[in-house]
């Protein structure tokens, strides 16, 4: 299922890096940057997370909360947050339910080998839970600029 601008964002209920429950409804009345990335502590994902970290204040000034989603578990997320001093929560989507709801789990290809994985995508969700924008061509080192443009 492909989500587009104007669609209602699918609700979800998952666990963050601390094992605490997190759902879309927690952000009612706030704007949300919900970004899906393949793996903690890899070069592209670290660049993306650090760009969001370094510009977190600007994102908050624009009214956004930030939440990352990957298939890594809570322990991996906690290490990633500690190592990179990330100020936002990360969802441990080990069963891919949030990925599947947002259409970000799909076939990828590397060196001619096909496999299933995270399609790096960011959803900008408004205060009413409606998707304002879908960013599919994420610039990991300059992602905040894409969000705030």
Provide tags for this entry.
9 strands, 5 helices, 28% helix, alpha/beta
Describe the structure.
The chain is an alpha/beta fold and 149 residues long. The chain has a single domain (13-148), classed as 3-Layer(aba) Sandwich (Glutaredoxin). It contains 5 helices and 9 strands. It has helices spanning 43-54, 56-61, 74-84, 97-102, 143-148; strands at 13-15, 21-23, 31-36, 64-70, 89-92, 105-110, 113-118, 121-125, 131-135. It has a 5-stranded mixed beta sheet with strand order 5-4-3-8-9. A two-stranded antiparallel ribbon has the order 1-2. A two-stranded antiparallel sheet has the order 6-7. The longest helix is centred in the N-terminal third of the chain and has 12 residues, at 43-54. The model has no long low-confidence stretch (mean pLDDT 96).
Distance between the termini: 27 Å
Provide the CATH top-level class: Alpha Beta
- Find the CATH topology: Glutaredoxin
Which percent bin holds the helix content?
A: 25-40%
Strand order of the largest sheet: 5-4-3-8-9
CATH architecture: 3-Layer(aba) Sandwich
Note the quaternary state here.
Answer: single chain
Query: What is the CA-atom radius of gyration, in angstroms?
Result: 14 Å
CATH superfamily: Glutaredoxin
Q: What is the percentage of strand-forming residues?
A: 25-35%
Helix-and-strand structural type: alpha/beta
> How many extended strands?
9
Count of discrete domains: 1
SSE topology string: EEEHHEHEHEEEEH
Major beta-sheet overview: 5 strands, mixed
How would you summarize what this structure contains?
The chain is of the alpha/beta class and 149 residues long. It is 28% helix and 30% strand.
């Amino acid at each position: 299922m492909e989500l587009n601008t104007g669609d209602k964002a699918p609700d979800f209920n998952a666990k963050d890096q601390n094992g605490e429950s997190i759902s879309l409804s927690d952000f009612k009345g706030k704007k949300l940057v919900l970004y899906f990335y393949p793996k903690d502590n890899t070069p592209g994902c670290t660049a993306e997370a650090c760009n969001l970290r370094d510009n977190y204040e600007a994102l908050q000034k624009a009214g956004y909360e930030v939440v990352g989603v990957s298939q890594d578990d809570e322990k991996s997320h906690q290490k990633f947050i500690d190592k990179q001093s990330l100020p936002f929560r990360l969802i441990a989507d080990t069963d891919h339910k949030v990925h599947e709801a947002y259409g970000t789990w799909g076939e990828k290809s590397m060196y001619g080998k096909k496999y299933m994985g995270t399609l790096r995508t960011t959803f900008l969700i408004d205060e009413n839970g409606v998707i304002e924008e879908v960013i599919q061509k994420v610039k990991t080192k300059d992602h905040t600029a894409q969000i705030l443009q």
